[in-house]
Design a protein that fits this description.
The complex is a heterodimer of chains A (about 375) and B (about 525). Chain A contains 14 helices and four strands. Chain A is mainly α and about 375 residues long. In chain B, the strands form two sheets. A five-stranded antiparallel beta sheet of chain B has the order 4-3-2-1-5. Classes of the chains: A mainly alpha (about 375), B mainly alpha (about 525).
Chain lengths: ~375, ~525
């Protein structure tokens, strides 16, 4: 267990705990005029960043430690989000525009007479939460089972994960799918009986996101320091050799891919109540690729780096799209090129390298989660 | 030759008409007399009589009636032309002097007006102009006016033009089928004629046939025949759409196949090269429009080499500044080129604006070719031909030039090729430039069928990847087969599943296909692929 709690982990946990205490305190206790006050609209924004950080964490687990570059993790995120969205839709009840007690507004609008079978049970929170885990997990399991068993690797795997999320996007855009089509699910009223727009609910959601992120981080940390984690790194660095040594590579890959998809689903479920909408745009392949760059910016294969990258890039995005919208894509595109060319270890890896050099105490071996020279 | 034939035909028609006028002088005169009785019913009969008489004056009489210039009274019928000059309707002689006082314009009501229209339609069947006859025949087919039957028969007897004759026969059949008091044998014969026509109009007519059971049965059999024929044409049309979509995919993917094949590099900015090609076309057309409008028809030919150079140049620049530092790290290359694609999109958006820019279509590319039941638009035909042309050219380059030889060598075994003295770095740059340049000329073609906007490339990138992974890398034939298979499958699925669902089905099919053949249809064999 001591391996799990290395210095970096403790820093991450302390920072998350600090955020979970400070953000609510600054929002609710500080006087609105004071310099320490956090305005109401910033709380869900920060909560959204934490949800993205959890998503980045899940990508880092498969990409950084197992070498699977998934360009479809946005699909798992969105599926988790839809599961949460369906629960929130059912909570609206008769308060919708058409005041139908069971059918969501869009179904009434489409002239549907009864609830489709796959909406059953979503009015019950535990069931919805189960689906948040199960649906992305099942998709990842089936997809991975096919892909890893036939040894689809490298760019081919990346491309078919992209095809998967693209196909799902097209599917969810269809009205007859029963997920609100183009508009997605929105206009939520309350969650577990609490009004979703209320400041206090948002604070709770933020804290829940921080707790989920900390839990996800610990889970990932536990995996990568366990024997399973060692095998994963071996798969990443020399897949064929690991196979020849007698490990069933596809089983390891499948397990970690499925787990990662469930983490992404949880991230989506935390994201939806805080932004108040989920629509098929979340499945866009571009979103999934963007997640990968968060990980790369922060530092691939470091876990903490994924969190850092998600926070930095998204904060940058918020600032750029507000101040210089024209330049945002240049900045993001430049970031992709800059990081891959000049900072392959990301912010965290580079910073720690400097730190080590400054202390003039070069380590004897290579750190277990350091990046290999070649990605394949 | 044409003029001679036409004038000969006109002469023949005139002769026939004058012969008819001599032989049938009686009926014409009789019919004309009916105009003088000042009764709508008689006027109606008179119109039919005059129209079917074949008298050269007949058209003038009916036209005059329509315009209220036909005067009648005291046993005489007179045509007054626009200037007020009088002509005797019976003889065609001009009448000198003032109009006789006892003449009044023949009155018309709606029923008479309908008769006039029908008569005019059937009389232009005799026009010396084949185009007019064709229009008239089609009008009769639509109106199915039984009164036109005699003149139709007459026109049929004289008609020499095969196209017009077919339509006339079909019009006659349509009338026979819907008119009362026609013998079953005639109606069945008519069904046969309509069956040969075999289009939607004929189907509609045949489906509504009532009457004797044997007639209805024949009509239904014919309708079923037409239906299956139409379905066949429909399927062929879908195949054509598929080939056309496949050509678009081929154009978009073929450059990608080269870069992916040689360098194992996933170029996510490939779609933006297509977009740059399309914008090059736009700029070329803008310059032509303002500077030398006469060259507009050739604008695409001017744009082609320019697009190749511009996109190829940008491609080489990208390779030299970014991609060459990332060899051996295909996943990083994927991310870096994605970043480049975002920057290129934003650059184009900043320069040209976010909205669609209009790229014109030269006149020679508009219109459509009717081939049996198929309708092939010229711009699609041009794109199919162009795509295959580009494919053939690339095939030749890869097979018969030293660049092609080197590229193939590097594709098969990079280190071995390097050991043999091939400068693999240079080949990489050139291959990347070639792939990008081909994407650029694909953009010229796609500017004709798609919106030229900064997002143009995004729409093709996933499809192009699907084509490449489906077809397999390192072999251009794989790209061709992949593009055509996906294009045709997509269009054949569309009528059953709808456009979106069809595409989803196809994506899932490809994902499953990759499981069976992880390196695509035409995979490179040997140890090199595992490198």
């Amino acid at each position: 267990m001591s391996q799990v709690f290395d210095r970096r982990t403790i820093v991450v946990l302390v920072l998350l705990a600090a955020a979970a205490i400070l953000v609510p305190a600054m929002n609710m206790l500080a006087a609105p005029g004071s310099a320490f006050h956090l305005s109401d609209h910033l709380v869900p924004l920060l909560g959204k960043y934490l949800a993205f950080a959890l998503l980045a964490l899940s990508v880092d687990l498969v990409w950084g430690y197992c070498g699977i570059l998934s360009l479809g993790h946005g699909a798992f995120f969105a599926l988790g989000g839809y599961a949460m969205g369906m629960y929130l839709m059912r909570q609206i009840g008769a308060r919708g525009v058409y005041a139908n007690p069971t059918l969501p507004d869009f179904m009434v609008f489409l002239n549907w007479k009864e609830l489709p079978w796959f909406w059953y049970g979503f009015d019950w929170f535990p069931f919805a939460m189960l689906m948040v885990l199960l649906v992305p997990g099942l998709l990842a399991f089936v997809f991975g089972w096919f892909a890893f068993r036939s040894r689809v690797t490298g760019v081919y795997l990346s491309i078919i994960t992209q095809a998967m999320t693209f196909a799902l996007m097209l599917a969810f855009f269809r009205n007859d799918m029963g997920f609100g089509g183009n508009n997605g699910l929105t206009d939520f009223k309350d969650i577990l009986g609490f009004p979703i727009q209320a400041a206090s609910t948002r604070v709770v959601l933020f804290v829940a996101s921080a707790v989920a992120l900390a839990g996800g981080y610990l889970l990932c940390r536990w995996i990568v320091t366990s024997k399973l984690g060692k095998v994963l790194v071996a798969v990443r660095d020399a897949e064929s050799r690991t196979r020849f040594l007698g490990y069933r590579v596809e089983h390891y890959k499948l397990a970690v891919f499925t787990l990662s998809a469930m983490l992404a689903g949880v991230a989506g479920a935390l994201y939806v109540p805080q932004v108040g909408i989920i629509n098929p745009g979340e499945f866009a392949p571009a979103n999934s690729i963007e997640v990968v760059i968060w990980v790369a910016v922060g530092g691939r294969g470091t876990l903490a780096g994924a969190i850092l990258g998600a926070l930095v890039v998204n904060a940058g995005k918020t600032w750029f799209t507000g101040a210089l919208p024209e330049l945002w894509l240049f900045a993001l595109g430049g970031l992709f090129v800059f990081v891959t060319l000049l900072m392959p270890k990301g912010i965290l890896g580079t910073a720690e390298e400097w730190w080590e050099r400054a202390r003039r105490k070069p380590k004897a071996g290579v750190a277990p989660d350091a990046l290999p020279s070649a990605a394949e | 030759m044409m003029i001679l034939r036409d004038s000969l035909r006109a002469l023949l028609v005139l002769l026939a008409l004058s012969w008819a006028s001599v032989a049938m002088a009686g009926p014409y005169e009789d019919a004309l007399q009916k105009f003088t009785t000042d009764s709508y019913a008689d006027t109606d009969t008179a119109i039919v009589g005059v129209a079917s008489s074949g008298n050269p004056q007949a058209l003038a009489v009916v036209e005059a009636l329509r315009d209220g210039r036909l005067l009648a009274g005291a046993g005489r019928v007179v045509i007054r032309d626009a200037s007020g000059a009088m002509t005797d309707a019976a003889t065609g002689q001009a009448i000198a002097g003032a109009a006789p006082a006892d003449l009044k314009p023949v009155r018309v009501n709606n029923r008479v007006r309908r008769a006039i229209e029908a008569a005019l339609g059937s009389m232009t069947l005799m026009s010396p102009d084949a185009g007019k006859r064709l229009d008239a025949a089609r009008a009769v087919f639509r109106s199915k006016d039984a009164a036109a039957l005699p003149i139709l028969d007459q026109a049929l007897a004289q008609e020499k033009d095969a196209t017009v004759k077919t339509i006339l026969e079909e019009a006659r059949a349509a009338i026979l089928l819907s008119a009362p008091d026609i013998s079953s044998a005639d109606r069945i014969a008519a069904i046969g004629v309509l069956k040969a026509r075999g289009n939607q109009d004929a189907l509609a007519l045949l489906s509504s046939v009532t009457g004797a059971p044997e007639v209805v049965e024949a009509a239904q059999a014919a309708a079923a025949g037409i239906r299956s024929r139409l379905e066949l044409w429909n399927a062929l049309q879908n195949v054509w759409y598929g080939i056309s979509l496949g050509s678009v995919l081929l154009l978009a993917a073929i450059g990608l196949a080269i870069t992916f094949g040689t360098m194992g590099v996933i170029n996510m900015a490939h779609g933006e090269m297509v977009m740059i090609g399309a914008y090059t076309t736009f700029v070329v057309q803008e310059i032509i429009r303002t500077q030398m409008p006469g060259l507009f028809g050739a604008s695409l030919f001017i744009a082609l080499p320019l697009a190749f150079v511009v996109a190829g140049g940008i491609g080489i620049l990208i390779e030299r500044t970014v991609i060459r530092f990332l060899y051996g790290r295909p996943l990083e290359t994927l991310l870096a080129t994605w970043g480049l694609s975002l920057m290129l999109q934003q650059a184009v958006r900043s320069i040209f604006g976010p909205t669609n820019r209009e790229v014109g279509t030269p006149a020679w590319m508009s219109g459509a070719l009717e081939l049996g039941g198929l309708s092939l638009t010229y711009n699609r035909i041009a794109i199919v031909i162009f795509a295959f042309g580009v494919f053939a050219a690339l095939l030749l380059v890869m097979r018969y030039t030293s660049l092609g030889l080197f590229v193939r060598a590097v594709t098969q075994n990079r280190r071995m090729a390097g050991s043999m003295g091939i400068r693999t770095n240079r080949i990489d740059a050139l291959a990347f430039g070639l792939g990008s340049g081909v994407a650029g000329i694909a953009g010229v073609a796609l500017s004709q069928i798609d919106n030229v906007s900064p997002n143009l490339g995004q729409g093709y990138i996933i499809d192009s990847f699907m084509v490449v992974v489906f077809g397999g890398v390192g072999n251009l034939w794989g790209t061709l087969v992949g593009a055509m298979t996906l294009g045709i499958a997509n269009k054949l699925l569309e009528p059953y599943a709808g456009a979106v669902l069809g595409k989803i089905v196809l994506l899932i099919a490809i994902i499953l296909f990759i499981q069976r053949r992880p390196r695509g249809l035409f995979a490179l064999k040997g140890r090199a692929v595992e490198a």
